[in-house]
Amino acid sequence: MQPVLLATIHHPNVSLPQLQQVVASVSKMFSAIYVTISSVTTSKVRHLLDEAPKFHCRIIEPHGAADARRKVLEFGLRDVHDAASFFYCDFDKIVVAVERAEPALEAFVKRLQAVDGYQIVGRDSVVMRSYPATWRETEAITNKAASAVLGLPDLDITAGCCAFSQEAARYILANSEGLLTDTEWPLICKAAKLPIVGIKVNFLPYDQAVNAGRDDDNWRGYASRLRLAYQALQSLEQGADSLNRTDPPKQVQFGWPYNGY
Known about the structure:
Blueprint: E1 4-9, H1 16-29, E2 32-38, H2 43-51, E3 55-60, H3 65-79, E4 86-89, H4 91-111, E5 118-123, H5 125-128, H6 133-150, E6 161-164, H7 166-175, H8 181-191, E7 196-201, H9 208-211, H10 221-242
Parallel strand pairs: 1-2, 1-4, 2-3, 5-7
Antiparallel strand pairs: 4-6, 5-6
């Protein structure tokens, strides 16, 4: 069974022909695609995705990446009760993967039949070198700390990409409330005693036209990226403390009711 793709979309810097190609490609790879689309995204993009086969779209108000990720997880999990696995990836990364490394993405998805627990999907060393120094050097701090907390060597936890089982999805949805899901979600699964692994892939390169943030290539870029790294360290610290608690994480059950989002 093909996995289900979850993605969040916020005003993507892509043309409509680019978007049509991405839609066609991912529709062949996944059994279904669930996306949350921020209300500030152009109506042409929203209409194209809403009409695409296999796509299930929900328009949301923009309240940050973590909120959008939780909402797309709730959307997909509520609707799909027999998924072999869920694959979450930021939509801008999906766009670049299709344009620059589609065979590698397709091969990865084909191997992603059934995930037991949670997979942290990171970037290999070649791909990582394509990112600006402001990203690489600050994310290295987060990744080093995450490796220590999770007990997994050489992690890349900041790629905006992960895969997980339906059981893991239910634990995540019931317990996620933090600002950074990259660090929070695997810690929730670890507290639930689910298996966690870290893997690295070559289909997540940086593309300035699609992925660029503000001041990526000058010293001011370090300020915003360091703020993110500090938030990640706080998330890891809170998660590490929670691992010592005796009460297990909650789990959303099918049949709901679920009123979190």
